[in-house]
Each structure stands twice: as C-alpha cells, then as structure tokens.
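Figure S7 source data.
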Amino acid sequence: MASPQDPSVSTRSVSGARQPDGEIALDVFRRAIEYVPVATSITDTQANILYVNPAFERLSGYTRDEVVGRNESLLSDKATPIAIYKDLWATITAGAPWQGRLVNRTKDGRRYLADLNVVPVSDATGAIIHFVGMHNDVTDLHQLESKVKNQDALITSVVEAAPVVIVLLDSLGRVVFSNQAYQDLKRETEEGEPADVFAQAFQERHAQGDKFPALEISVEAPNAERHWFSCSASKVHEHDMSAAGYFTPVGQSGLLFVASDITLQRQRYEQARTNAMRALVAEQQMAQGMREIVSGAIFQLQGPLNVMSAAAQMMERQNGGGALAAPIEEVLKAGGDALEKLKAALPHVADEPVASLNINELIREVLDVSIDALLREGIFVDWRPAKVLPNVPGRANALRTMIKNLVDNAIFAIKDAGGARREIVMTTRAPSSGDVKMEICDSGGGLDEAIRLKIYEPFFSAWKKTRSRPGMGLVLARQIVAAQGGSLKIDNLTPVLISGLTPGGCKAEVIFAATDPHKGEKSSR
Ligand code: FAD
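Tokens for the predicted flavin-adenine dinucleotide complex:
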C-alpha cells in the first residue's frame, strides 16, 4: 500500500470518486485513512493486524511491515489492568464498539496513555469479520488534567486550612466558592450571605488596580457575639470557557473577599477605649462637681457682697460713709478678693473641636461607663438605636457628659421612686430633617407639678435618696445641647409616649441639630 508521503497518493485527484451506483469508491476511503491523524489499524477477529496507517507508524514507532501479521497486544503494557481487556473483548465480540483508555508501549519502550476506540465490522450475514482500532496519545492531556486536579487539591487544602474567611462572588453577586470558615460564619449568622455585607461595605470604594484597600467590617450574629473582620477585596477576571467565546471572549469579573477575624483584637481595643472613657468621664464628673461646688460658693458669697456693696453706697451718699466706711470697704475688698480666688479655682474646661459624631456610638459609650450603676440599682436598659443614623456636628466629650447626666437622672429617678419596675428605654431616631432625636424614658416617679418649672434652675435638686447632687446636671445639659444647636425637653411620660412603661416616669428628649450653629454647615454622613 502506498504511504501518504508518496507523491502519487498526495497529488492524485479524487474526482470521479463517486461510482455510477452512487457509492464512493473504496480507494477514496483507503486514501482518507492514510491521511487521518489518528493511529488506525484493521485486524482480523483475533486482533491480528492486517493494516495500519501512517499515524499508527508515527505513534507506535513500528513500520507497517513490522506489525502486519502480529497481534495488537504487541502494544500492550502491563500497567493496564486485565479487566479492561476483558471488557474490551466482551464488548466488541458482542458486536458493539468499545471506547476506553489503556497504557501502550512504543517500539522503543516509551509508555503512553492511549484513548482507544475499537469498532467491529460485520459482513452481509452479520458475522464479525474485522475490527478497526483508532487511538490517540492522550498522555499530555492526562498530565494536564492531573496537574489541574493536583493544583485544585492543593488550593482547596490551603484555602480550607487558612484561618481566614474566603468567598468568591460572580459578576451577578452570587457565591460561587467559599471555604469552611465562611460556611461556619454563614451558619452562625443564620440568615443570608455574610458576603452580601462585605460586598455592601466595598460598594462605594474605589479599587487601586484590581485591589480595594482593606476595611474593618462587622457581621451581626443573632445568638452570638458580633464578628469583626479585617476584609480585603480584589477583582477576579474569569476566562470565558464557552465555545462561543473562543474567538471573542466575554470578560466576566467576580469579587474575591479574604477576611480575617479581628473580633478579639477589637474587643481588647473596645475594652481599652471603655476604660479610657470611664477615666475621662470620672475626671469630667469630678471637674463638674468641683465647678458646681465652687459656683455654688460664688453664688452664696456674691449675694451678701452685693447687699453690703449697696448698703455701703447708700451710707456713702447719706453721711459720707461715716466711721463704718473703712471697715466696710475692707470687708468688700476681702469679699471681692475671695470671689476672684474662687473664680480662679473653677476647673478649666478644655476647648474641644467640633467633630462629626454618631449619637448611637456616644450612647453606647455612656451605657458602657454607666453599667456598674445600672447593675447596682438593678435597672434594665432597653436600647433601641436607629439602624441608620446621620452624623451630627458636636463636641464629643461635652455631649457624652450631657447624655451621662440624663442617664444618671433616670437612674436617680428610678432609685427615688423605689418601684418594682426598673427600666430605662433609650431610643434614637432620624427624622427626615437630618436632625437626630434621642429619647431617654425612665420608670421613675416623674415630675411633680410643683417642681416642673424649677428643674432647669441652678442648684435645684429634689432627689430624696441622692443628696450628693448639687442640681447643676440639667443646667449643664441644656447649655451643652444649646451649644450644639439642638434642644432639650423633659416631660412626664404618658402611656402614649412610650408603650410598656407605666405612666408617671420621665422622658428626656434631645434633638441634635444637623448643622453646626457656629458654621452653618451640614455634617458629613
Ligand atoms: P490477551 O491474552 O491478548 O488478552 C487478555 C484478555 O482479553 C483475555 O484474558 C481475554 O479475556 C480477552 N481476549 C483476548 N483475545 C480475545 C479474543 N480473541 N476473544 C475474546 N476475548 C479475548 N491492546 C492494547 O494493549 N493496546 C492497543 O492499542 C490495542 N488495540 C487493539 C485494537 C483492536 C482492533 C483490537 C481488536 C484489540 C486491541 N487491543 C489492544 C487488545 C489486544 O488484542 C489484547 O487483547 C491486549 O493487548 C491484551 O493482550 P495480552 O497479551 O496481555 O492478553
């Protein structure tokens, strides 16, 4: 038989290949097989080789003359399990084609993985007379598949063992891959995909190239502590695997989040912050107490001095002061000096810069530092923060002091009333104006009509069981709120004001202004 390299074959015209009866001439098939790039052989029913094409010669290393008359088993390698051959023969002798993989050996002993198809050929009576074998060397493909599987196994084991949450979203925001740590987190959060929280946090961020700067993100878990993550995100560009995308691939990009749990560090930081806050509030309260006492002393001294001064002026006008003029002058001078000394002794209030503040955070900090007093008095705090709260401008320390004064008043009121119900309900709301509203409702005894109008007076205090308070808390609170541009209102509760609390308690309502009264600018959100 001519080889494909034979010019008489390669250049011979195939015109007239169709015979008069419409069949394609056998010679056409023979020449076609010569060119097929698949190692092809034709055998008798015992697998003795009758014909092999050039592709067979190239792959096996045997020439046609060397293999014709020999069995296909000359290609066999002992690495192929006997069960494969049994299956091959059971299938083809039953008249069905067989397809499978086996290990072959070339003439020079090189092993290769063959993807083999064997097709039985029957005569007109249906008896099998030949088998046609076609095989390809798929060693490279197998190596590639194995490499991909090995890499996949390696990546999976690294990703699973990594002590970080890893989750990949496709271009539609669907989770397409996640590791065990992510699945554990999802189980804990119970509802929805934590990846949505990550995606939302990065929504308005700008990527540097394909990477986004890391963010600290908290994920709520209903029956567990809130988790804090340091989360980084990067765009992942996917290769188009579709046939349609072979020539013109459609670029898809997903988002990969890698988040490490920093809850513990965050708790330590919060603890340190709370401790610092406690120290600051204690210091402020001490300074406030001193201011109240010194202011009280100034107030007490100023009255008699004013009277004496008026008396001295009267005496001066009537008889030139007389013999008492000099001692009175001395007393007034000593009094004036004492007043100046007292004024100088007033603790200095540091001038704080105005910042953009989240009232929920300030309330949480105040509750943290008030926790001991609340526990001591057995008071339950029902904290209902608005989920989304615009920031407002203000001086953080001053506003914390103001909120602390109001919480302290609620505690004193409950303590004074001595009732069974010991509850404070704190709420924040965000009316559409951009202002922020805070309410502190207590289950104390409320305000008597007789004192309702006096509560903002300096040194007015009606607590029965808390005598140490000089009655400057509300004066100060009102000053701080006014400086912020907001308003403070204290009123008796009615059942309509807040459900669940018995009438008779008090409600302190503070409106924090959206704009800084000194600048007239809106604060950032
Ligand atoms: P064998 O003794 O030849 O066969 C092993 C088992 O196969 C036997 O125990 C028996 O169960 C079954 N068997 C063998 N011959 C027959 C038969 N005539 N009737 C029924 N059952 C039988 N093998 C390769 O390793 N590589 C190839 O590329 C390859 N190509 C083939 C192409 C064709 C067209 C055909 C028909 C067979 C091909 N074979 C190929 C199979 C080959 O003929 C051998 O069966 C195989 O190589 C095992 O050889 P062996 O000497 O180890 O065992």
